[in-house]
Amino acid sequence: MKFSSCSVTLALLVAGASAFAPIQVQNQARSLQTSIPKNAAIVLQSTEASSSETATTSSTSESNGDPNSKITVPFSFNDMVKDTALAMSDAKAEGINRQIIRILLPRDPNSGNLGQYFEEDIEVEGGSRGTQDLLLAPPDESWQGGIMQLYRAALPSAKEILRKVGGEIGGLPPKLIEDRSIDESGVDGVGLLMTQSNNPKDDISCFVQPLQETVDAIENISAQAGQRLCVLMNPQWRNVDDALDSASKNEGIFGSLASFLGGKGTSLKRLEDAGYKEVYCIEGYVCKGGNVRLMKRFDTDWVVFAENDSETDFIRLGSMECRPTYQDVEKMLDDMGISLKYARDIGLAPKLE
Question: Residue 253 pLDDT more than 70?
Fold first, then answer.
């Protein structure tokens, strides 16, 4: 998109963003060794049938020749961990060692009771509750508790994924080390998670919820990691662009100024130059009153799903090579004759089953 000097200047003034100082990673050598309404969350029930369906997805996609058919909406936290780890391992096998993943996060099923209580940290590692009754929710501004609450849900999720990707050592998962020194303020919800394996070449570095100001640290760690796997999980910049983001992708003085004021264009270019690619993404929001999921693997298009009215399944709407816009998703719903959810709820339109 082209911007005139006047329009870009106006966008920058309205944004009123401030510049940030680069974050420096402490003890890098030691580290290497070692947005959406609440009702977008869905209760996910793990069943033997859903696990069996997930297990056969790969063979089914190979037989019908459609790579997009390997994309399915996970029906439990464990399914999402397994699908994410599989995509990461498949990408690594194809030489993609700089990966970006975006996932939903687990949270308490009572999380809709905003203001009635303080939500406890999620436990997925041997907790008394287990993972069967957790919600999977988009990590957006509707999350109760703010960025640190997100981090306390993202960290155990990252650990479970890295254990799957890293494999077992003598029957035990690899050792995991959390380094919060990358978060100088201590409240930005950023961390560096590392695995330690018997063979150093199998070590993994995972930046949890990195910021644009973390890019310096990402470049430094990536340069030292060589062929080892480096992962960015749930970056704190959105996939969609605002005026500053669009302007920052342009060259010249206005592009530089937009980046200086917070546009993500320069940061994304640096990550692209470092080899980072989106490997597994699952996003969600509400369209026409119903929950939708946008999903992509590194080897597929973007696939769009809509939740049925009984909240037991997701219906595939279509796919696009580029990330679908909200208008694209709305058109997919219209093309399939899917009406507004309130009309379906009161019987003015057929149910989505």
Answer: no
